[in-house]
Specification:
The complex is a heterodimer of chains A (about 600) and B (about 190).
Chain A (H helix, E strand, L loop, with lengths): L2 H4 L1 H11 L3 H14 L9 H37 L7 E2 L2 E7 L2 E5 L2 E4 L5 E2 L4 E4 L4 E6 L2 E5 L3 E10 L3 E16 L7 E5 L3 E5 L3 E6 L3 E8 L1 E6 L12 E4 L2 E6 H12 L5 H8 L2 E3 L2 H10 L3 H4 E2 L14 E7 L2 E6 L3 E5 L2 E6 L8 E3 L2 E5 L3 E5 L4 E5 L11 E3 L2 E5 L4 E5 L5 E6 L9 E3 L2 E5 L4 E6 L5 E6 L8 E4 L2 E6 L2 E6 L4 E7 L3 E7 L2 E6 L4 E5 L4 E5 L6 E6 L2 E6 L2 E5 L5 E6 L6 E5 L3 E6 L2 E6 L1
Parallel strand pairs in A: 10-11
Antiparallel strand pairs in A: 1-9, 2-5, 2-7, 3-4, 3-6, 6-9, 7-8, 8-10, 9-10, 10-13, 11-12, 12-15, 13-14, 14-17, 15-16, 17-18, 19-50, 20-21, 21-22, 22-23, 24-25, 25-26, 26-27, 28-29, 29-30, 30-31, 32-33, 33-34, 34-35, 36-37, 37-38, 38-39, 40-41, 41-42, 42-43, 44-45, 45-46, 46-47, 48-49, 49-50
Chain B lengths: L1 H5 L3 H9 L4 H22 L2 H17 L10 H20 L5 H11 L6 H20 L2 H12 L4 H8 L3 H21 L4
Classes of the chains: A alpha+beta (about 600), B mainly alpha (about 190).
């Protein structure tokens, strides 16, 4: 009988939190506990005491040595100061953006790279899958993509900048705005060295090959030959719009030409390395990236030290210039990219900010002020899904999974409670003096906001999640197979647009935007005509309308699309399964794994 | 003499050590070395490292014993030192460590009386469990190890970690839910 089995308190604790898995977990916990080794130590308390005394006396010795050392350094420093006017110092290299899991290896330590952090000579930056880092060094900006490892070999600044970075594997995108005389910027890979001469370029590298794309300017690409000391000055010049590959086969060909054909090094290089025109697709992407990356991507990512990275971010609610961020375990209030306060709750609903109150459901429906103080909390039946808390007139309308709609006043009093018998599939929409909502069993309800009673109920069948949009006295209803406009008061269909496979829809000031399962995005005008449709790609999700255009994510690309259906801008997201969490007139917040980024529109 | 010490509380023993009686420290060492070792082992998954760290904890404790507030409990104080040592160590070897590999090696070296099949399955499950505990972030792991590793009361855990009892319970709840979820996803339970 193990000691755990007797401990009812611990078992009941596991049972309470682990549910059906309690027995299995309890057994594993016991196995794990009993697998821990026993202490086999030959050390006695006397050794410990002796060691303590030794380290105490060492400390004293060290203190005197250090004091003497400091005095000597000061004296020598004063003498040398006048002899050397200028010594090379490290150029400031600052991290402008770090998304996902980006680590810096500094000596034997690994630390998380954060925005604003200084990168030092000899640091190695490691970007995991779905991660990215942007480092600014003087006029040069390095963007290190996912699955890359870049070492800063040299980072010196006297009058000129000397930067040498090496990358055995990965993708590095560099922009150099303006090179001063004497500046030297080199990127080394296993097979080549790229010397920058005022340009923008991208290097892709693995252990066997290096691929270079140059957007504008010139790059001198040199092969890394085993015994060549001139690797940084002998190579091929790659101009803007062109690309070049150096792989192990290229290196073998050069060696062969030198040893067997007795060809001069320069000639062997020119013969073995060919420069070609870069493909359009890559150049298009690179041109898009060539805009100021750090300005385009407004990084607002919080590192694990601030937002707990154990759970993914579930929502972002912008409020004035601040944001409220929730994860599965906490709610955070961020002002100017700094966390002002956080509470360990288990928020299940996206918070709604209502007259300086942050309203959300954890176990209770509760309101906090913007300082994080609790204002009220009330018990409600069921859970609120997503961002279904909606203010209508001076009340907060709160639908729950139990099929109940609560009407709540500003001071947290339940004014009305209406039971609709089934969970809701749409968020409440304001419709004159009524609020309309559709239940999972296909009924449309209209509830009087003032009286708090259901005054209309009609079967309309299955609708999409959040698939009703009110335009009093008319209403759009979106089902998986159609979009229809009805006159609710007259109970008649005005028009109907059939399209099988509609997966999501949002309201547009002049109609409805919809996306289908096969990757079509379209707009139906208020009169029922199909204005346009485009095919950005499969898995269109997070479709939203903003005054600056339509935004969505298709596959792994973020799109901003004009009202006329033209793609204004696209951006390949560094993480799969990204999702738009929130949109303001200027900014789109996108979840990337356990972090998020903010894109300025 | 030793029997006399056994009758004393931790705090009374501390007072004896401060008064110059080093033998009282032996009693404290005997009471806590095994427990502290197991707690540290749960962080580092290496016996040698855990023993070194355990020595470090007691060296620190001895050196700073005069700073210990007698009104507080010694156990909370020494656990706090142990957790700080463990976290520092973890931070130093972060990402370069091979905790799970070490745990695998240890389990392979350990003796068992089960059939080879049972042994392999049990090993794998225990490794999965270790991995689940290991992937908890510090604040959750600390509570988990103190509660289930050391079987401390929440009031003690709260004192050690300088948090409220409610927060400690909440972290425990999240830790178990996380571990359950982790193990379910990997088919271990």
């Amino acid at each position: 009988m193990n000691r755990w089995a007797d401990d009812k308190e611990l078992y009941s604790e596991i049972a309470e939190y682990a549910g059906d898995s309690a027995d299995a977990l309890f057994s594993l916990l016991h196995n794990w506990q009993s697998s821990l080794p026993s202490l086999r130590d030959t050390c006695t308390y006397k050794d410990i005491i002796e060691q303590s005394r030794k380290s105490r006396s060492y400390s004293k010795q060290w203190l005197s040595i250090v004091a003497t050392g400091i005095a000597a350094v000061i004296v020598i420093g004063i003498v040398l100061f006048n002899r050397f006017v200028e010594k090379p110092s490290q150029a400031p290299a600052i991290c402008k953006a770090a998304i996902g899991n980006v680590l810096v290896q500094r000596g034997h330590e690994f630390i998380n790279l954060t925005n604003g952090m200084e990168v030092l000579q000899s640091d190695t930056i490691v970007c995991d899958k779905g991660s990215m880092a942007v480092i600014e060094i003087g006029s040069a900006t390095l963007r290190i993509d996912e699955n890359s490892k870049v070492s800063i070999d040299s980072l010196q600044k006297t009058q000129a900048l000397s930067l040498a970075a090496s990358m055995d594997k990965g993708i590095l995108y560099a922009t150099v705005q303006k090179l001063q005389k004497g500046d030297s910027i080199l990127v080394k890979t296993k097979t080549a060295v790229a010397g920058i001469r005022g340009t923008s370029f991208l290097v892709k590298s693995d252990s066997k090959s290096t691929r270079l794309f140059v957007i504008d300017g010139k790059v001198l690409l040199s092969p890394r030959l085993q015994d060549s000391k001139q690797e940084d000055i002998t190579g091929v010049v790659v101009d803007g719009g062109k690309s070049c590959v150096i792989d192990t086969r290229t290196l073998r060909n050069i060696q062969k030409a030198i040893t067997e054909k007795k060809m001069p090094l320069h000639e062997a290089i020119q013969q073995s390395i060919s420069v070609s025109i870069a493909d359009d697709k890559t150049m298009k992407v690179l041109h898009a990236l060539n805009q100021d990356v750090s300005a385009q991507v407004v990084i607002n990512e919080d590192k694990p030290s601030s937002i707990n990275d154990l759970y993914p971010i579930t929502s972002i609610t912008p409020y004035r210039n601040d944001i409220v961020v929730t994860t599965n375990d906490s709610i955070y209030y961020c002002e100017n990219d700094r966390i002002q306060w956080m509470h360990e709750y288990n928020p299940v609903s996206k918070p709604y900010v209502w007259d300086n109150f942050i309203v959300f459901q954890s176990k209770m429906l509760q309101a906090l002020d913007t300082k994080g103080n609790s204002k009220w909390e009330i018990e409600i039946e069921g859970s609120i899904i997503g961002d279904n808390i909606v203010p209508i007139r001076d009340k907060l309308v709160v639908p729950t999974t139990k099929g109940i709609i609560y009407f709540i006043s500003k001071n947290g009093t339940i004014l009305h409670k209406v039971n609709c018998d089934a969970p809701f599939v749409t968020r409440p929409v304001s419709f004159g003096q009524m609020v309309c909502v559709v239940t999972a069993d296909g009924y449309l309800y209209a509830i009087d906001v003032v009286l708090g009673v259901s005054i209309y109920r009609k079967y309309i069948g299955k609708v999409l999640d959040n698939g009703i949009f009110a335009n009093y006295p008319e209403m759009y209803i979106v089902t998986p197979a159609s979009i229809q406009k009805i006159h609710l008061l007259r109970d008649e269909i005005i028009w109907k647009y059939d399209n099988s496979g509609i997966v999501t829809a949002v309201e547009h000031p002049q109609g409805i935007l919809f996306a289908t399962a096969n990757g079509t995005l379209g707009k139906i005008a208020a009169n029922g005509t199909l204005e346009w449709q485009i095919n950005p790609g499969k898995e269109i999700r997070s479709l939203q309308y903003t005054p600056k255009g339509i935004v969505c994510i298709a596959e792994n690309v973020f799109y901003q699309i004009s009202d006329a259906g033209e793609v204004l801008w696209s951006y390949t997201l560094p993480a799969l399964n990204s999702e738009i969490l929130s949109v303001t007139p200027k900014t789109v917040y996108i979840r990337l794994g356990n972090s998020f980024l903010a894109l300025r529109l | 003499m030793s029997q006399t010490f056994k009758a004393l509380t931790d705090e009374e023993l501390v007072k004896c050590v401060i008064d110059g009686n080093d033998q009282a420290f032996e009693e404290l060492y005997q009471r806590y070395s095994e427990r502290i070792f197991k707690l540290l082992y749960s962080y580092v998954y290496n016996e040698e490292d855990a023993i070194d760290l355990m020595h470090d904890v007691f060296i620190r404790a001895y050196r700073h014993l005069h700073k210990f507030d007698i009104k507080r409990t010694f156990s909370s104080w020494i656990y706090k030192i142990a957790i700080n040592c463990a976290k520092n160590h973890r931070y130093k070897v972060r990402k370069t460590d091979t905790m799970i590999e070490r745990e695998e090696q240890r389990l392979i070296q350990a003796e068992g009386v089960k059939t080879p099949e049972d042994y392999i399955i049990d090993n794998e499950l225990t490794q999965e469990f270790s991995l689940a505990v290991d992937t908890l972030t510090d604040k959750f792991r600390e509570v988990f190890l103190l509660r289930f590793g050391q079987q401390l009361q929440y009031s003690d855990i709260a004192t050690i970690l300088n948090i409220s009892e409610r927060t400690a319970k909440w972290r425990m709840e999240r830790a178990i839910m996380y571990i359950t979820d982790f193990l379910k996803k990997r088919g271990a339970i």
